[in-house]
Amino acid sequence: MIPKDLLYAKSHEWVMVEGDIATVGISHFAQEQLGDLTFVELPEVGDTFEAGSEMGSVESVKAASEIYAPVTGEVIEINEALEDAPEKVNEEPYGDGWLLKFKIKGDPEGLLDAEAYTSVVESEAH
Amino acid sequence: MPYVPHTEDEVREMLATIGVDSVDDLFAEITEDMRPKSFDLPEGLSEMEVLSKLEAMAAKNATDRVSFLGAGFYDHYIPAAVDALTMRGEFYTAYTPYQPEASQGTLQAIFEYQTAVTRLLGMEYANASVYDGGTALYEALMMAVRKTKRRKIIVSEALNPIYRVMLDSYTSNLDVKLVTVPHKNGMTDIEGLKNAIDDDTAALLVQNPNFFGSINDFTELCAAAKAKKAVSIISSYPVLQTLLKTPGDMGADIAVAEGQSLGLPLSFGGPYLGIMTCTKKMVRQLPGRMVGRTKDSEGRTGYVLTLQAREQHIRRQKATSNICSNQSLCALRALVHMCALGELGMKRAARVSVERAHVCAERLTAIDGVNMLTQGPFGNEFAVTLPMNAFEAIAKLTARGFVPGFPLGRYYDGLENGLLVACTEKTSEEQIGIFAEMLKGALK
Hints:
A: 9 strands; B: Aspartate Aminotransferase, domain 1; 2 domains; four-stranded antiparallel beta sheet
């Protein structure tokens, strides 16, 4: 469950880069660890973040966890459907469960490819 | 039955188990000079002797004064039903119980309390309450800091100074900057506050009616804060809130209040009740317990603690607050008080209080040298300036059984002659007349 065509942050966000637009979500592994999500707290359109800074949080019935901006840039769109249906993140973490889109400033740095992220997941899963 | 936690045998056994010879050795770490010199405990007394001793001490309290004190805490009439219902064993607990869902009645009462205060303040969500109005204001300020990730708080000097002292103390070791905008002759300086809000401002703190009793509409001010993405926090007075425009209608993001005026007696500082309400947008930042209504697996109505991911047993060090209970008994009293009076009863109590205060203001300002300090509309409280030091006037009248009000000079430089006077539905016109005559006499 780690698509080959995406990039990943060590903090378990995935990134799909198309030109200067990055779509961001959390990985299958992350949603599985959290359990059934009850709430996704996202920033507002227009907010800007440095890569690695806290940009929101996801809450499940048993845990709450911060989500971090995997890239530097400005939020241009958020997945508003998640307000009423956070379970989409559990059901389709790489599809309808996407979180938000960034207009990237500069080149993304420090992200992992699918292979490197697989070993992160494997080390954390044990 | 005497309360003996451990018998001598048990103490010996425990000491032997950990390998210490005596209780003194156990506390050897505490040096001689750090220990109390003497416990000076008198011999034991019988229950009857204790009672008579305590009654003699209690008799030293002055409970028969006619009081015009307010300053955030008001002597409203409390229906007998409040004591009768809240002292029932099923309800008599100070906190949200542990294993809360096992106490459905307690949770339902908290849920009803939350519903009542959100309606009163015109807001969307309420928590199960916090300690008092000052704590509520501090927690509201921290909600704004978390939400905006900004550090500057704009505070009106016309906000209750007792709260401002609390905020100073609570924030003294935090990375939060309080900026106070001075009052203007007892008025909230709306223009000054507007100008103080900038892109670094996390929150704006104002009070309605303000400390001097002056009633404001903060709608424009809240809009100005919103334009800068700052959070508007209004502290209000629950009893008058039945007559005034609500914080919700003014556009406040958070509305807090001291709940004492809803069924809690004045008792030297507490226990009181911190009412906290907010908009849906802020609810994830709300501290403390919240009760929600739901259905169980068989479709029956049930009550649960909800949105618990805000709290420290789940979110650990990133919890919204370390508050993990509520002021349950006081919240219950407020609920019963509101229900016993109903909307009409609450409005009538508020109207009569306001009328009495206006009669009082007229009588006092008819005296030579006594002038209104509060400008514009006021509710059941107002400030006057006296032709003498207010502390001295208070001492003179208090000695004769009338406490004329609160000395503004205690917190405001230059207002040493200022007196803050409050009335409630309990204040009679006769008392107002006597007060005016006494003050006239004292000024001669």
